């Protein structure tokens, strides 16, 4: 866990209003919300920005759905059984996914995926260290348990 560099605190200004409107009911219900993956990677690199606005939370998908329904302009649930709720607030489209963890059984190469309440478990299952970083929406803290920032 580390503080973002001063310049990075403003990296998400274009998303601040939309994300804050979604974060408010989640936080009020006792849940955390994080910007995650390529969105964080690309903003730290100051690269062409990914069109993906991915977030992750400890809230289960049905709770996400219920909490964002009152603030989102549109909600879609095609990925809900996999833990993902898609939504649009203004002109910002985003996906919020419940933290996930995976384990492998001895006779299979396919992992068993389950929902988790732990951010570190979710980040540990991502494909590359540079995609395993998250920014806490509440305080701007960068979570980088896999060392992705150093790998950039």
Automatic annotation (TrEMBL):
Biological-process GO terms, alphabetical: tRNA processing
One GO MF term attached to the UniProt entry: nucleotidyltransferase activity
Key word Nucleotidyltransferase present: yes
Keywords (A to Z) from UniProt: Magnesium, Metal-binding, Nucleotidyltransferase, Transferase, tRNA processing
Residues covered by the Poly A polymerase head domain: 33-152
Cofactor names: Mg(2+)
Protein name: Poly A polymerase head domain-containing protein
Organism per entry: marine metagenome
């Amino acid at each position: 866990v580390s503080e973002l560099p001063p310049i990075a605190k403003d990296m998400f200004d274009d998303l601040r209003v939309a994300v804050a409107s979604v974060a408010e009911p989640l936080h009020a219900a006792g849940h955390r919300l994080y910007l995650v993956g390529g969105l964080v990677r690309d903003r730290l690199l100051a690269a062409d920005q990914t069109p993906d606005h991915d977030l992750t939370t400890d809230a289960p998908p049905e709770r996400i759905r219920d909490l964002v329904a009152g603030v989102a302009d549109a909600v879609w649930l095609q990925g809900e059984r996999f833990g993902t709720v898609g939504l649009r607030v203004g002109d910002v489209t985003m996906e919020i996914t419940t933290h996930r963890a995976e384990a492998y059984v001895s006779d299979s190469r396919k992992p068993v995926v389950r929902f988790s309440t732990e951010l570190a478990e979710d980040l540990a299952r991502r494909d590359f260290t540079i995609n395993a970083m998250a920014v806490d929406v509440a305080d701007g803290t960068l979570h980088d348990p896999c060392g992705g920032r150093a790998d950039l």
